[in-house]
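Input/output pair, single chain:
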Amino acid sequence: MTIRQAPKTILTLLLFTCSFLLGTFPVGAIDSYLTVSRHNVNIRSAPTKKARVVASAQKGDRFKFIRQVGDWYEIRMFSGDYRYIYRKLGQITINNTGANLGEETIKKVYEEMVRAEARAQKEAAAKFPQDTDRSSRHKRFALDRYTLEVFHKYDITPASYEQIIGEAAERKVVHSE
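Output:
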């Protein structure tokens, strides 16, 4: 470390230490996760109780935490869209222990995720054949719901999504049907 870098490094360490002690981590500084604390928790499309329910989370589900929006926690779902869980129904944690999944399980989960995406696409196209915007939005809602069902079926936390995608790509898992 050079003398010019020292003040920046010290400032970064000081900010991190203060954030840690105060319990407020800057977004992106550390991977944070939302752990759901109750069964059948609504995951909504916007941070309001009137927003559409996209899916239902179960106690112990962990999602990648993005930020707090008022009384809501913002998470990123499988579709890449932001979704919301009421603050009193979850807890922010710092660590996410990756799932220890065998090759067969990864293959099965990945194949079911591919089927979930096809199901969401088919449902959206049938429901909104003439409206591509609504069809696309509905597909993302359905994709989040159906993919979460796959994770619940295999008792895998949703925070393991990226791990499964990465391992499936690394192992060149191909959907067989």
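Helices lie at 5-22, 103-127, 132-153, 161-170. Residues 103-127 form the longest helix (25 residues).
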